[in-house]
Amino acid sequence: MSLKHFLMHGRHIPFLLGIQMAFIILFGVFVEYDKEADSGKAINANATTNEGNTIGHYYPMFQDVHVMMFIGFGFLMTFLKKYGYSAVAVNFLIAAIVLQWATLCQGFYHTFDGRRIHITITSLLNADFASATVLISFGAVIGVTTPLQLAVMAVCEIAIFASNEHLGLEILRISDVGASMLVHVFGAYFGLAVSCVLRRDVSSEKEGATYNSDIFAMIGTIFLWLFWPSFNAGLAEGDAQHRAVINTYYSLAACCVTAFAISALVSKEHKFDMVHIQNSTLAGGVAIGTAADMMIHPFGAMIVGSIAGTVSVLGYRYLTPVVNRRLGIHDTCGVHNLHGMPGMIAGIVGAITAAAATQEEYGYSLYRQFSARAPLAGTPEFKALHHHIEHLEPGLGRSASMQGGYQIATLFITLAIAISGGLVTGLILRLPIFGKVHQDHLFDDEMCWEVPEADHPQLEQIPSHNASPSPMVLHQF
Amino acid sequence: MSLKHFLMHGRHIPFLLGIQMAFIILFGVFVEYDKEADSGKAINANATTNEGNTIGHYYPMFQDVHVMMFIGFGFLMTFLKKYGYSAVAVNFLIAAIVLQWATLCQGFYHTFDGRRIHITITSLLNADFASATVLISFGAVIGVTTPLQLAVMAVCEIAIFASNEHLGLEILRISDVGASMLVHVFGAYFGLAVSCVLRRDVSSEKEGATYNSDIFAMIGTIFLWLFWPSFNAGLAEGDAQHRAVINTYYSLAACCVTAFAISALVSKEHKFDMVHIQNSTLAGGVAIGTAADMMIHPFGAMIVGSIAGTVSVLGYRYLTPVVNRRLGIHDTCGVHNLHGMPGMIAGIVGAITAAAATQEEYGYSLYRQFSARAPLAGTPEFKALHHHIEHLEPGLGRSASMQGGYQIATLFITLAIAISGGLVTGLILRLPIFGKVHQDHLFDDEMCWEVPEADHPQLEQIPSHNASPSPMVLHQF
Amino acid sequence: MSLKHFLMHGRHIPFLLGIQMAFIILFGVFVEYDKEADSGKAINANATTNEGNTIGHYYPMFQDVHVMMFIGFGFLMTFLKKYGYSAVAVNFLIAAIVLQWATLCQGFYHTFDGRRIHITITSLLNADFASATVLISFGAVIGVTTPLQLAVMAVCEIAIFASNEHLGLEILRISDVGASMLVHVFGAYFGLAVSCVLRRDVSSEKEGATYNSDIFAMIGTIFLWLFWPSFNAGLAEGDAQHRAVINTYYSLAACCVTAFAISALVSKEHKFDMVHIQNSTLAGGVAIGTAADMMIHPFGAMIVGSIAGTVSVLGYRYLTPVVNRRLGIHDTCGVHNLHGMPGMIAGIVGAITAAAATQEEYGYSLYRQFSARAPLAGTPEFKALHHHIEHLEPGLGRSASMQGGYQIATLFITLAIAISGGLVTGLILRLPIFGKVHQDHLFDDEMCWEVPEADHPQLEQIPSHNASPSPMVLHQF
After folding, report:
1. For position A385, what pLDDT does the model report?
2. Which of A161, A383, C151, C278 shows the greatest Cβ crowding within 10 Å of its Cβ?
3. Where is the Ammonium transporter AmtB-like domain (chains A, B, C) (predicted)?
4. Residue C461 — pLDDT band, cuts 50, 70, 90?
């Protein structure tokens, strides 16, 4: 019976131990320190500072992004009244899996030299970005999936995500500094597609918040909002990084004010709605992501943020219920409103801004920003430019409008890959071997956790020494 | 009726949308990237690091300050049992307004070249400092003001604040690296003046804490305490920044220990009082602010911190009740004890330290620290010094004691401008058009928020299916 | 009677005021800014950046470690249902004492020039490390000690800790970049020894968690997990720092996945156990600490992390109850499982890795990493090496295996000093003058805090207007 019980309830254990062992073996075979982190190859054996080492440059923003993934996403999802343990802890587990798996998948595309993947602090930062993708998808299906299903989803999703990222950045050569298309659009529509296939009939009174759970969720919201400039600027440099910070800051500020106003406009008695405040105030960070390091100007960023805040609140108020009822797609955290639509806006804004980029406005930095716009190697244009820019890499000689076209193409390709990948992954998750959440356990920590007894509503209604059911039912949190 | 309802309860909506639109237009007309963030004017188109760009220097401390404003102030104010949503979320809204408005007001004084305001990361950092001013004032009137009133207060306050800041830093040429006078004294007395005019008769059992709300508030306290060195050192450089970090660190440590001891000394049964721990442990950060980058020495910083902790606890214990009862000035968070008096101490300590500053102790850095002490242009003294200091800017030839005098004058000018500005702003906020909080809604999220039913004390006492009022009243949080 | 009451309940007040005053005097006599923070000795009076000043290098990681001490440890310990105030606030008090005292104790060993201790940002970082030691010991005795006992413990422990640290780093010349031996092993076994001597008969229903307290604790867990790379890399430089970040990141990720799996394996119904998730997911950070900057390779770090996660969960599940019952050693937070055993693993892993270190693999950096392995001054080997490494310091000419031996010796010396120091300190804490926690107040904030009435279980069961005890007992949190 113990074995039977194990096979029923313990299936995630061999899976988790198995992938962890697989990660260790794959790291042993394929992963090595890059020379910046390798003692034997270090530039300067006498180094007493980080001079010439990129750790100092990337580390502060890396840590901000790291906080966004684990505190930001983790606590944002604690708003559910009986799902706080799972929100913050399963988020933790899934992200820890992804950090390792994404290092392998992205490393294979970025730094694999035929023998080894070479890792630096940017590998870690990229792995954190990748984990955002999965955590966004997690938001669509939180409460209706088991940890095992989520772990399997993470493994499938990252493999597809890394391929799409490679396609966008290295083959189509598009610019998406804040990863609004490659992470947010991808993660949101992948998650919605999974949710669509899982097609759980969800109507649970547990899918609500309490006073305390809403405040816990605000910890997530605020940290995400604060550190979003680091997310959008983390992989940029010099003036581009400086600009990405400024644009994201003002986009988010404008988005916050607008989201509050629109929330009051469309809510009952013109009160604010916590769901909007927790989520839609962040839409400006997503929507400016692709164009964050472009010359969109502060007022442009603020317009984008305001539109995103508006669209996001209206989505929560009017669109989500319809999508749920009519299309049967449940979206627990409303990722369509926070990541899906704002990500689409980001892609469009990025394409327009790219299509308007001139050398007059950008100076020679144009060819760093949009590498494909640099002239083809060997052409007279290349030689002329090379005279001004020492480290110029040859490009594809794209025009501004061509670059805009590639940007928009990438948006729709990402959408298509995310949706089809999500549908397939959803089908995999329905395999009986991965189990499913019993209807009584939807949005309920009881499924996976020992919940303190005196504290849990189902148990605390009737104290143990009082045998007869009391007519007085107390909902306490 | 819908229109009537809108005019009654929805007045903040057009105001919020209106100022956001105004910000966008003003940014479009006046605001531009500084050359450090402008692609076309960037120093080095090949930059692959942040060399020569100040973003790397300022960003980590900027983010710490950013966390202080939104997590620190936001959660510090969640201590009220039924006002957690408003504390953290309205703090969020008001700060997001201020970030944009302060960029304009401060930019007008700092970087306006007749045509454009030029923004960099320091503009963002300054805007965050400015938001502290409003959030301090917010602390004096939290629970007794509507979001609309607070937004109007923010707009008025920042305009006056930026003028006073300009007066202090650029006309009177004083040193206030941690902005203890320009931000803390200003914000506290401005808020108290507003509260004095609003003169709400406040005696609500809702003005108390619960076990959980007190722990939420500690999140705010601790983050403020941790990142205060970044607040005091964020705009400094080199050895001055290094010194500001050290002084603030030890001032805060000494303040914490002292505040605990004095709290136990004056509280019932010699227990610790959460109000003191949440607030007075921070007074050392305020009190060392003005002198943080001066040669006050670690033990000097610790003395200042210990005094501030003591004064602050005594203020909460003995002064606040008197001010409330006798003068009718309600001070919800006790900002007078955390920002007002410690800010006054800071101003005095700063003046004394400045009056004792000699070239012998400070070396040539003296003229960077106190720019007005540099000799007048063209004088023989200037020429002699210029021989040693290449980038010397001409000053006003002030003596040490003159500098001390200017410092103290600025303290009292700030006090006068804050109080008169606050009184006028208070009168504006009493205009019927801005509404007011109904007596029943003081310190109650119900005014602005849909609060989860089962969770709210007023509603949960009697479950919906139990019609008769129960004699058993449960206060649950 | 007031005096009698003061002598009974207020003994901590003169102690706290006394040590604070002593710290100020000792700082006045002995502590001075190092030249990097001294205006008169600053390298460049014209500095407008931090060039040539180490504040920029160390500050971001310092702040991460600072957050770990006060938010990380503070909130990790809020899991107890009625001890949240004490967990976060007494943690705050004790750490604030230690920051000052450790500056003196460590400064005496590190930078004392016979007249003055010279402090920089690394002094602050080291003081934060030292506070970790005490906070770990605090974890063993939380709930069974008074604030006065803890303050006394902190003072004794830091004096012993600083001596042991000096012995390890400067006399035995070992490498322990993440301080797993010098901080974690020391703190854990010191605390357990204290707990052993205090020998409180603890069996309280208050020693449990509630739903909300568990989520508060996760704030601590996640911040500790996120910033652990800064803890292990904070004092390293260049490629060694880069490597320490990478190793710690992957060790923690692997540890997290493994801890979840093993937790489900050994828990009832194969659910996850919050105690394991809150604590054992962090064991990887401890276990990689000593070898974090060595060439252990990412897969090696992941193996270490996985083993630590496994050992830690098994410790909580099987060892702690036995140690408690058989040996009578109570360990409230299970520091033996989070810091003790993983710290032992760290010491062993560090010794093995050090014993395998060759110049072939490490290049000339070998002699920076293990300074004792550099040749003796004046030897031909030294001269040959000096030819390649300009700033080479003479060492002790140790072989790899000798270095490994010294590493392992330090582990056991640390263990011996910690245990004996803890036993003596425990005896001191039992002196009647320091008081003790009454049996009714174990794990109860009531001892030291005014707890909101309506909120406290003991009071809220029976509303004040209801005289007769109700048969319906509600446990609410």
Report:
1. 86
2. A161
3. 23-433
4. very low
